[in-house]
């Protein structure tokens, strides 16, 4: 009875990945299918490409920012909500509800909130801040270090996207941490308190180390979401001026389905798959080993 | 003591402020969607409408109703099918392990993490060759196939908790593989089905990449239509926001009424049950 599912996955996951890998070595660059093998030339072209280099920079910066901020806020929210507050369910639900939304809806809303001509900037102006941020329309990169074709650094525009992504995902981190916190025995907390540990010390020395496995899972889950992100950016900003908010997911989509450059699209997606696998494969193997059936 | 009370008050203040911040997008969404066209201007984004105007909703509804229908026709069967297959797989993998089942299971799980861009080109060719490209059944097939890993995982973790004695008892009573599934496992897994169904429905409903690449025009699910709505410059902002709300409503309603199950599904996605 397992067979139909295995066949389905065998074809749809492994078979198709193999075929994509094959396409990435061909010269299929237009509507006309061309299966002539060209070796690694599609990859070589990509790595010299201004847009793809920008994508790599953006993905790196976005991933670091997104994971770090989501985890810190998630932990903070969990610690707050876990203090037996009244209305716990209400607060928990408010922080998690963005998870029920589509990245498209999130993108559509945040596009307006972080639009430099309105939204948050209206409030900032009312507060007397004249030099308001340009959010996702900024082309600034800090610092600008010339590297290959591109200027390396943090593209300011990507911060706006990260804000929307954190808004959507921090509730998930909170839920994970809450589950973890419930698993820390009161004895352990009491023991630490008896030893004279203050609140802050208790969190640093007992709670955070105890939550380590959760943090590891979170890093892996958030990283794989971040590395393959597409919808949110597509709906919110698109590639952006000078590709400041472009990512491989968007590039792959545009080059394949708008430009009919299938070979290039396949190459980008293979690189995306490799990046995701870097995180996922060790995770899967270690959780398989840990479990005894 | 006073310090403690002060801390407590501070805690509530911080929580309240954070809750407000998290709800800001909802405020913008609601307020803008009921504004008169003359009031949807960039400088009055935060202002409340002077009166309720339903033009945004009427227009959004008129434009999006075919796509909302598509999404229901897609998400409901896809959810049912993947839940059914997932539960079967989970049952086998947790209760009838065989040599190599762990490796197979892990290989299966890999499928839920891959970036779907990496299977998209062959997928389109494949769907074209079986004449399911640009059709709702085609999308259902795709969502069932790529939903299998997570559904299997969730059910497997759920069934691991079913004590083996229950199965033994059923075996002694003469129940076989299917008998145990139907009379023991299925009745025990109502919660499991609810959790998986909520999860899968939400994912399928909110999914965009497959929807935008595998369908055109009339077959498009809601998220593609919403994106098209906001992508075109002529469409007014109140219509856009009303549309976003309509698109989000089914999953939001599920969340509001069944948040406990939704959160369980959320946590189940992280492999360890």
UniProtKB/TrEMBL annotation, chain B:
Transmembrane parts of this sequence: 9-30, 72-91, 103-124, 136-159, 180-201, 241-263
Segments forming domain ABC transmembrane type-1: 68-258
UniProt keyword terms in alphabetical order: Membrane, Transmembrane, Transmembrane helix, Transport
Compartment annotation: Cell membrane; Membrane
Signal peptide from the UniProt entry: none
Entry-linked InterPro entries: MetI-like (IPR000515), MetI-like_sf (IPR035906)
Predominant localisation class: membrane
CDD domains: TM_PBP2
Membrane topology, from the record: Multi-pass membrane protein
Family to which this protein belongs: Belongs to the binding-protein-dependent transport system permease family.
Name of the protein in question: ABC transporter permease
Organism: Gordoniibacillus kamchatkensis
């Amino acid at each position: 009875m397992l067979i139909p599912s295995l066949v389905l996955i065998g074809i749809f996951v492994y078979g198709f990945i193999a075929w994509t890998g094959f396409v990435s070595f061909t010269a299929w660059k237009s509507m006309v299918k061309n299966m002539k093998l060209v070796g690694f030339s599609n990859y070589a072209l990509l790595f010299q490409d201004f847009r793809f280099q920008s994508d790599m920079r953006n993905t790196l910066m976005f991933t670091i920012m997104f994971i770090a901020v989501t985890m810190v806020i998630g932990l903070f929210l969990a610690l707050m909500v876990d203090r037996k507050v009244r209305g716990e369910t209400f607060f928990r639900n408010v922080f998690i509800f963005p998870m029920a939304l589509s990245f498209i809806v999130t993108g559509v809303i945040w596009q307006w909130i972080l639009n430099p001509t309105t939204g948050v900037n209206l409030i900032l102006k009312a507060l007397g801040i004249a030099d308001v941020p340009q959010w996702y329309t900024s082309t600034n990169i800090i610092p600008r270090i010339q590297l290959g074709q591109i200027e390396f650094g943090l593209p300011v525009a990507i911060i706006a996207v990260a804000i929307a992504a954190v808004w959507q995902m921090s509730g998930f981190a909170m839920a994970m941490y809450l589950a973890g916190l419930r698993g820390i025995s009161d004895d352990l907390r009491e023991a630490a308190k008896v030893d004279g540990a203050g609140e802050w010390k208790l969190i640093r020395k007992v709670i955070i180390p105890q939550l380590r496995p959760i943090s590891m899972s979170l890093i892996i889950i958030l990283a794989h979401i971040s590395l393959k992100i597409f919808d949110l950016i597509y709906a919110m900003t698109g590639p952006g001026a000078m590709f400041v908010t472009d990512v491989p997911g968007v590039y792959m989509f545009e080059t394949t389905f708008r430009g009919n450059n299938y070979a290039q699209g396949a190459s980008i997606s293979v690189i995306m798959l490799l990046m995701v696998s870097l995180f996922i494969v060790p995770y899967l193997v270690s959780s398989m080993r840990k479990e005894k059936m | 003591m006073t310090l403690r009370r002060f801390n407590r008050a501070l805690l509530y203040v911080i929580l309240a402020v954070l809750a407000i911040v998290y709800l800001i997008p909802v405020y913008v969404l609601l307020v803008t969607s009921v504004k008169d066209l003359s009031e949807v201007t960039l400088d009055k984004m935060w202002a409340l409408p002077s009166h309720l105007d339903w033009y945004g909703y009427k227009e959004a509804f008129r434009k999006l109703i075919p796509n909302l229908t598509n999404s229901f026709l897609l998400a409901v069967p896809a959810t049912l099918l993947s839940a059914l297959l997932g539960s079967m797989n989970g049952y086998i993998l947790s209760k009838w392990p065989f040599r190599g089942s762990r490796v197979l299971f892990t290989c299966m799980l890999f499928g839920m993490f891959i970036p779907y861009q990496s299977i998209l080109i062959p997928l389109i060719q494949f769907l074209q060759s079986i004449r399911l490209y640009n059709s709702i059944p085609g999308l259902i097939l795709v969502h069932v196939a790529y939903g299998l890993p997570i559904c299997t995982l969730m059910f497997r973790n759920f069934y691991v908790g079913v004590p083996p004695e229950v199965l033994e008892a059923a075996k002694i009573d003469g129940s076989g593989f299917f008998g145990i599934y139907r009379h023991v496992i299925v009745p025990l897994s109502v919660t499991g089905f609810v959790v998986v169904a909520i999860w899968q429905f939400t994912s399928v409903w909110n999914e965009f990449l497959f929807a935008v690449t595998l369908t055109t025009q009339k077959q498009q699910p809601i998220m593609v239509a919403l994106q098209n709505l906001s992508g075109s410059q002529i469409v007014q902002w109140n219509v856009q926001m009303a549309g976003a709300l309509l698109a989000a409503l089914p999953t939001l309603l599920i969340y509001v009424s069944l948040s406990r199950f939704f959160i369980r599904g959320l946590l189940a996605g992280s492999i360890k049950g």
